[in-house]
Amino acid sequence: MKRLQERLAASRFFTFSLLLHVIIVILGGSVVLFKQFVEPPDFVSEGGGLVSGDTAAAPPPDDKPNVEDQVFAPDQPSINTPTVDAITSTSTVPTTFKMTSVPTPIKPVDSDMTKSMTDAAKQLAKGVGAGIPSSMAGRMGGTARGAAMMKNNGKEKSEKAVMAGLRWLKQHQNEDGSWSADFSSSMTGFACLCFLGHGETPESPEFGPTVKKGIDWLLASGTQNQGHLSGKADFGGNDAVYQHAIAAYALGEYYTMTKDDRVADLLKQAVGFIVQGQAPDGGWQYSYTKGPDSDTSVSGWQIQALKAAHLTGLQIPGVDEALDKAMLDLKRVQAEDGSYGYRKAGDHDFSLDGVGVLCTYFWKQDKDRGVKEGIEHMLRQTENKHPVKYKAESADLYAWYYDTQACLMFGGGAWNKWNHMFQDEIADNQSPDGSWPPCGGGAPGGELTRRPDGAGPYYRTSLCILMLEVFYRYMPINK
Length: 479
Prior knowledge:
By secondary structure, this protein is mostly helical.
């Protein structure tokens, strides 16, 4: 016992330290246990919010970027945005033309529509239609079309109407590949533009043979007539310059999408006729005569054909210079109120406003003062005098074709207003068979919109399809 006492005395400092640490551990554990069972936690995982008072956190400030000032107040239509699955895709990669490797499949639509469209354009540049300009990327494939429709407020029923219309055109194609017995060159050009506007090529599963037969007919007719695409060997008659330009427009788009070498020489020859037929004032006239006061209606189709030729990358001589000069003629016929005249400023009501705006923007790609004033005048006249009503006496499919594209290119409030007026009206007036019936069509030059036979059904159906393809057919490159 004495020995034990001596050992404890010798280790008294160690014993004191051990007892002190035991006490600290006991006190610390007590505090932890007290907090665990008495104090509540700061957050409750299952509720997802703050426990104290159930006070919701304030939303972050709205730091959206300022939108470019528009001359129109937005009038956003109430629509049902289509899903990508609702956008029917029938096109595949062409294999019979000189193409680069098959493109990598485009990823599903991103919530950022701008990024999605940019990605689609990049993918297209690597594969199908190598060299496709970004303005045409929206038509190339179901994913790109779906993204463009969502971005531009297109409805599912509009795409269904387009598909029904394309199937009607397929069913009513002539055995030789043309469409209509009247004005066959322009009606075939219109029909081909409808299929091309949907991204269809000769290798598309559903519409490939239709496209091939149509293009082959244009090639055969143009070759037979030594570069004249009017269906005859000259430009006599008021219809010839229209037919030639519309067919050239179709061949230009086709070459850009396929790089089919068969088309190049004929297209160069046909576009050469347009360049050579330009009048001194910068516009075009019937029979490509070169007197004063060119015709804005005739000029509109020549400008569209020249822009398509420019996009081919073929560097056809005189195209860019002709387009620059054409802008001078459009300025010549624009009045102070913004309207575009037929042969002179102020000599027409409003139906050529879309021609002037679209063709100016198509080439300059700039919202200059003339473009803004033209859009304003066109919308004022539409709302006050010429409503977009298919069965009304003032129905004007020709004007609406241009107006629809012009407003999309301008964007903002102008597009919201026009989209609200035109989309349902065009889609809802389609016939059950997929064509469009005669409309009121009392507007000047509206004979084909009223005719139940001849070229009438082809003309109306093509214009309506092209209007409803506007959501993806040509994209404003500055957006």
